[in-house]
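Hi support team,

I submitted a single chain yesterday and got back a structure, but I'm not sure I'm reading the token output correctly. Could someone confirm the output below corresponds to the sequence I sent? I've pasted both exactly as they appear in my results page.

Thanks,
R.
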Amino acid sequence: MKSLTIIFLFLVHSMMYGQDIHWTQYNDNPLFQNPGNAGAFQEDFRFIANYRNQWRSVTVPFSTNSFSADTRYKNWGLGLLAFHDQVGDGKLRTVECQANINRPINLSMLPNHTIRPGVNIGFNYRQINWSSLYFDNQYNGYIFDPNAPSNESFQSDSKTNLSLGLGLVDDWKYSDRLTFHSGISAFNLNRPNQGFYNQVVLRDVRWNIFTKASYALTSDWTLLPSFQYSRQGKYQECMLGGLARYAFSTRDKVNLYGGLWWRNKDAMSMNIAYEKGPLYCGISYDINFSKLVPASNARGGFEIAVKYVISRFKPKQIIHRVCPDFI
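Hi R., thanks for writing in. Yes, this is the structure output for that exact sequence:
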């Protein structure tokens, strides 16, 4: 195999050891964050769609799409998550489907707390398109001919794995104005092999710790600070920031959000969002300040999150009084 192929395989090998996908609006992709988040909301059904596009100014961009749905059934939190990620000239893509389940627990020793232990089971599929890559065998001595055969032989262009994860979430109502939502999770606990070749390339365990608070300053203004730390192998990510929410109409649930996020040694992110009734839409953009700035021109990733919740119709109970016989 020639030098260009060797260099490419080295890059692919590095990506195999890299992190799972990540999100700036991590609070708006709760099932990817922790299986204990399934069903942890007031309404009956929740649907979330996420899209992220990153590094367009540097190379072929990373493009990631995600969709999740969750609900509650007989006091169990249930959720499904699916995402598709594609990157590079070889269109290395990852498709993953995950099932999440948890059971809320109330402990007498921890009043005002709800504990949610959860389990995550994922099905992961990775594929690369070798025909989209160019090799030095396609140079005929005078010009580069992309239609010429590469004369390369590859063992496989896809890989399928099963992954397992666990999570724990704690909902704490400190007061009527202040609440906390925190959790810890670990994904890929079975360390699935994701190598395309005979060499075993184990997927690292992804650890996630997060906490977010909601503090009502006034009847109109609410602060929503949060923190998340993720670690996978030798890679780690720390995000800190928050949103401020202004309520235009409490009756119609019309809210406007705005805030900033800081990703350690990488980027600063701006986030705005609008909510009306059951629909929420958030947009963020990363401004890169890492060592990649000369190539990225400070441009990072664009991301959008759309959420829609549904509440079952609950007819109002009318209590009829029974009149005494003597009236």
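A quick pointer for reading it: The mean pLDDT is 83. Let us know if anything else looks off.

Best,
Support desk
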